[in-house]
Description:
Blueprint: H1 21-26, H2 41-50, E1 59-64, H3 72-77, E2 80-86, H4 92-109, E3 114-118, E4 135-137, E5 142-146, E6 157-159, E7 174-177, E8 182-190, E9 193-200, E10 202-204, E11 210-214, E12 217-218, H5 230-241, E13 246-249, H6 255-267, E14 274-279, H7 282-286, H8 288-294, E15 297-301, H9 302-308, H10 314-327, E16 332-335, H11 350-361, E17 366-369, H12 371-374, H13 379-399, H14 415-434, E18 438-442, H15 447-454, E19 461-465, H16 468-473, E20 480-484, H17 491-504, E21 514-520, E22 534-540
Parallel strand pairs: 1-2, 1-17, 2-3, 3-13, 5-6, 13-14, 14-15, 15-16, 16-17, 18-19, 18-21, 19-20
Antiparallel strand pairs: 4-10, 5-9, 7-8, 7-11, 8-9, 11-12, 21-22
InterPro entries: Pyr_Knase, Pyrv/PenolPyrv_kinase-like_dom, Pyrv_kinase-like_dom_sf, Pyrv_Knase-like_insert_dom_sf, Pyrv_Knase_brl, Pyrv_Knase_C, Pyrv_Knase_C_sf, Pyrv_Knase_insert_dom_sf
EC number: 2.7.1.40
Organism: Lolium multiflorum
Amino acid sequence: MATSAATGSLPSYLVPPSASRRRRAHRIRASTTSVEGAMDVVSEAELREKGFMGMRKTKLVCTVGPACLDALPALARGGMGVARVNLCHGGRDWHRAAMTEVRRLNEEEGFCVSLMVDTEGSQLLVADHGGPASVKAEDCSEWLFTSKKTDKARPFTMHVNFDKFSEGILVGDELVVDGGMATFEVTEKIGNDLRCKCADPGLLLPRAKLSFWRDGKLIERNFGLPTLSAKDWADIEFGITEGVDCIALSFVKDANDIKDLKTYLSRRSLEHIKIFAKIESLEALKNLKEIIEASDGVMVARGDLGVQVPLEQIPAIQEAIVELCRNLNKPVIVASQLLESMVEYPTPTRAEVADVCEAVRQYADAIMLSAESAVGAFPEKALSVLRTASERMESWSREENMQRFLPQHQLAIALPDRISEQICSSAVEMANNLAVDVIFVYTKHGHMASLLSRNRPNPPIFAFTDNASSRKSMNLYWGVIPLQLPLSNSMDDNFNNAIRLMKSKGGSVKPGDSVLVVADSDLNQPCGATSVYQSIQVRLVY
């Protein structure tokens, strides 16, 4: 059987990383130019190096920015499964160049990197003040916050993007910038403007987020703005034109925000584009379950969430969201400030590594770099830290059999859907108890793969599909390695074709390896249909 190598008597999560990892990563090359029957080169290299059980389960997302455009090939080699383009920053030409490079890597070099774009959403923030990139607010200095636009920057003046931003605000309220980067006390109201005194000095950046607090509580206000602005719709159209795989919707308030966008995409036959809800406001937390149910996945945007929620509550909120997403079978990304110090420094703090490991311990589907890769000085090193930390934590979780503590909740009501759930739950239990090397699943649209992933099995899940969009959408499922392969309704044909593909990848499958196989009997059903004829088989490779 294929197993990961051990070093001495140390548990695998304490084994020092191989000194040759970086050299090996740079030697990764595509072994096939065929789209059908392709395995992405990162998974192929991991499998050859570590065996099935050593393959990383947690997916890695990198935000693409000026710091890493030239480093995209290295990030892809380093394990980036999703490239996130934040449409709040940069221009169309730059966004297009980044997406074009990702597509080139997929088509020419054998990677399988999905494209995600973020909408900006409606939020209260500092408008671009036209002056320096940052302005220091000193202790006790007085500032004017105004929505009135001027031709040039004025000293001690910050421009706010909403005309009625001061409605309901009282003298004595606190104005918090970017979750605490600087704090002001409101000393005077002048029409719609606010005169404020700096209580905690700090940097004021263009597009910094603003929130108001009274007696230690956030002042909740609804400006009556839609979740999707005119700019957001233009950004979505741009993303569609560029062939994105998923859209991260910012400042979601309730399930209707998701449903409206899904309806729009459905009318244009673009259901393959997945919608991820960014949880970053108190309003979203109040409607959390319905938002998760309506979406295709969730991003825990801890940075913006920390502006509206006391910081000490963020860890518990994160864990609750991750658990609820797994129970509802929706992939979840933990994002924001995972390795924030690596924006400037080549090594993370110990607390940051512990934060990454905690997200992995919670079985989040994916973890994400934001500023660390977008504008940081060490994007490749930051990704390497994510990869190493996740591999070590997964190894510990597997050795301690932490999967047994995961609660299981029935999702489905209709009998065919309940059968699918039970088939996948039983398959994972069998795979763990029999210590099989790998799980194969044949799926048109990825649903069976997601149900297997939900149970967090010890072996990796190789999901074979003949649908390119389904392959990309499975990039964010925990433990799933998506492969494109022609499928038939014959289990034997599918298994033999899969084994033939795996053997062609440097002998990654060997005689004696055990494979647990899950499949629908009819792979030609329409999307959303569920077969009541499904099977589990355990096969040995000869």
